[in-house]
Amino acid sequence: MIIRTAAARESGTSVIRTVLRFCCGLIALLIFAVSAAGEESQTWEERMARAREKYNRKTVNVYVAGHGKYRRGRINARFYLSENRPHMNINIRESLQITDEAEIEAVLELVSKDKHYSVEEYGTVSFMKAQWIAHNLAHSMANGTEEQQLLIRMAVGESLTDIISSSEELDLSPLVNISDRQKLLYDVVELLYCRQGS
User: Fold this and answer.
1) Backbone angles phi and psi of 169, in degrees to 5
2) What is the residue extent of each domain of the chain?
3) Tens-of-pLDDT digits for all 198 residues of the chain?
4) What 3 state SS string does the chain have?
5) Measured on CA atoms in the order 34, 152, 121, 128, is the torsion positive or negative?
6) β-bridge pairing 88-92 and 170-172
7) Contact between 129 and 193 (Cβ < 8 Å)
């Protein structure tokens, strides 16, 4: 009977930790969204047109590991197989250089035109954009103020060193490799950054 009670307590503690991490993640996203609000002086269509001029087939290199190569001076989006997984991830090495929502979307539009991409496997461009924004946010907060560092540590449940090293490059995972908690957070980010036509 004592063993069951201890196990139940441990299970309850785990649930509480998960809920706290999720709440911290939501708080962090809301802070980020509020701070980013009001930056826009152009319409979304104008921003997208400018982003598509900047990020196109000449400036973005989409390739599959082993069938293409990294190109210096471009944004590189590489499809690759991770260890012991049947589905490819999409690695964007220069992801931290791009923080503008329209520019992120322009790059992801090019990725979505590759024959290895499918909406069933990776989700919509809007969902991938939510992953990218969350990734940039995690890196920014891990390098930010003490309060931001505390929030991101609580939300992710990892050390600052691990958060920084894992967020230096973006890995977009197939939907089957994303946990329900991560999907929920990405759905919230997608909601906060939803654009008409995204």
Assistant:
1) -130, 150
2) 2-192
3) 444 444 444 544 555 555 556 556 666 666 555 555 555 578 999 999 999 999 999 999 999 999 999 999 999 999 999 877 788 999 999 999 999 999 999 999 999 999 999 999 999 999 999 999 999 998 998 999 998 888 888 877 888 898 888 889 999 999 999 998 889 888 988 988 765 444
4) CHHHHHHHHHHHHHHHHHHHHHHHHHHHHHHHHHHHCCCCCCCHHHHHHHHHHHCCCCCEEEEECCCCCCCCCCEEEEEEECCCCCCEEEEECCHHHCCCHHHHHHHHHHHHCCCCCCHHHHCCHHHHHHHHHHHHHHHHHHCCCHHHHHHHHHHHCCCHHHHHHHCCCEEECCHHHCCHHHHHHHHHHHHHCCCCCC
5) positive
6) antiparallel
7) yes
Can you read off the two tokens belonging to residue 93? 């090495």
**Block residue for tokens 């001076």:** 73
